[in-house]
Amino acid sequence: MNLFGRIFSAFGRTRIGGWTIRNVVTPLDRKLYRWTSGRITISAMAFPTLLLVTVGRKSGKERITPLIYLRDGEKLLVGSSNVGLEQSAAWPLNIAANPAVRVQIGKSVRPYLARAGTSEEVDHYWPKFAAIYPPFATYAERSGVRKLFILEPAHET
């Protein structure tokens, strides 16, 4: 991890850091990622970052969320921590209502099917995921929850 990543991780472990990431960095990254095709974002300076496009379970509108990810072959894994808050982020609830999502990595946009990881998958991938972004371990301690979602390529017909 580069120096920026270490500083970002240390800040992200604090409550004010979590608030800042959720309320400032994430909205800014969403815009920067789209404007620059992922070339310029705050989080992508240190961590692999994608844009997850879900359909709002209530609104029916597209919702775009920048997330740190781990790749395993064609599968992508993303964590749902909501910076350690007890309340879930909205995107996992949107996935539960409609697992068909789109993922943008750089300029590439592809359809995926999303699902919650099994307890075995979470046990297997969590250490790797927390190694990419160490605050996930802190967030899991705060909330008591370790959630990973598996994104598998959808075959277009």
From TrEMBL:
Cited Pfam families: F420H2_quin_red
Annotated catalysed reactions: oxidized coenzyme F420-(gamma-L-Glu)(n) + a quinol + H(+) = reduced coenzyme F420-(gamma-L-Glu)(n) + a quinone
InterPro entries named in the record: F420H2_quin_Rdtase, Split_barrel_FMN-bd
Record GO cellular component, one term: plasma membrane
GO molecular function: coenzyme F420 binding; oxidoreductase activity
Signal sequence residues: none
Top-level taxon of origin: Bacteria
Family listed: Belongs to the F420H(2)-dependent quinone reductase family.
Protein name: Nitroreductase family deazaflavin-dependent oxidoreductase
Organism per entry: Candidatus Viridilinea halotolerans
